[in-house]
UniProtKB/TrEMBL annotation:
Residues 2-172 form the Ketoreductase domain. The gene is fabG_6. It holds the Pfam family adh_short_C2. The lineage of its organism: Bacteria, Bacillati, Actinomycetota, Actinomycetes, Propionibacteriales. Belongs to the short-chain dehydrogenases/reductases (SDR) family. NCBIfam families: PRK12826.1-2. This is 3-oxoacyl-[acyl-carrier-protein] reductase. InterPro entries: KR_dom, NAD(P)-bd_dom_sf, Sc_DH/Rdtase_CS, SDR_fam.
Length: 228
């Protein structure tokens, strides 16, 4: 299996959960730092040649990728009128187009195996929207349309495609918020707290086993986005 962006946060927790279950795990990062026991592969998902090279390395070591967790993502937050072309393009290229590249390449091996799991890591922001995050929200919402199209296209070959939509999670990205910002966020969440990365990983490992779930968006957000 392959987890992108697996050196920290959600991606690392997912990789560690699969490793603990005894799976062969490959992790792609731009700068290294995969969990112990995982195949550590360098890959920038915005570069098609690097994606191809990463799959070649993984397949040589582990065989075809049977589970893809497309988790790599970036933010470049700013209000729309201040958002540059690069702010928009780089976020969409990494978060959405990068996921397309990964899924397209994974599907080749999955089609031959006649089985596979494609899991995209989206965000509650992709469903609710967020001021100052038009680029990020659009990229994360796009994953839903991508997954549901792949679910219809690949389902007859035993391949599922699903989305996990985390809410606010305790990671390096949220550690930089002020206490006031954190309190305001928690006030919006019915469960009154952030998720742990392990709680997101639990949903992803469940989807990897769920043979009759496809085209689904699984919210793991403490109730923040209910109804969306």
């Amino acid at each position: 299996m392959l987890v992108t962006g697996g050196n920290r946060g959600i991606g690392r927790a997912v990789a560690e959960a699969f490793l603990a279950a005894g799976d062969k795990v490959a992790v792609t990062t731009r700068s290294g730092g995969a969990p112990e026991g995982a195949l550590d592969v360098r890959c920038d998902v915005t570069d098609p040649a690097q994606v191809e090279a990463a799959y070649a390395e993984i397949e040589a070591a582990h065989g075809p990728v049977e589970v893809l967790v497309a988790n790599a993502g970036i933010t470049k937050d700013t209000l729309l009128l201040r958002m540059s072309e690069d702010d928009w393009a780089s976020v969409v290229d990494t978060n959405l187009t990068g996921s397309y590249r990964l899924a397209k390449r994974a599907a080749k091996g999955m089609l031959r195996l006649r089985r596979g799991r494609i899991i995209f890591v989206s965000s509650v922001v992709g469903l609710l929207g967020s001021a100052g995050q038009a680029n990020y929200a659009a990229s994360k919402a796009g994953l839903v349309g991508l997954a549901r199209s792949l679910a219809r296209e690949l389902g007859s070959r035993g391949i599922t495609a699903n989305v996990v939509a985390p809410g606010f999670v305790e990671t390096d990205m949220t550690d930089v918020l002020t206490d006031e910002q954190k309190s305001a966020i928690k006030a919006q969440v019915p469960l009154g707290r952030y998720a742990s990365v392990d709680e997101i990983a639990d949903a992803i490992t469940w989807l990897a086993d769920a043979g009759y779930v496809t085209g689904a968006v699984i919210p793991v957000d403490g109730g923040l986005g209910m109804g969306h």
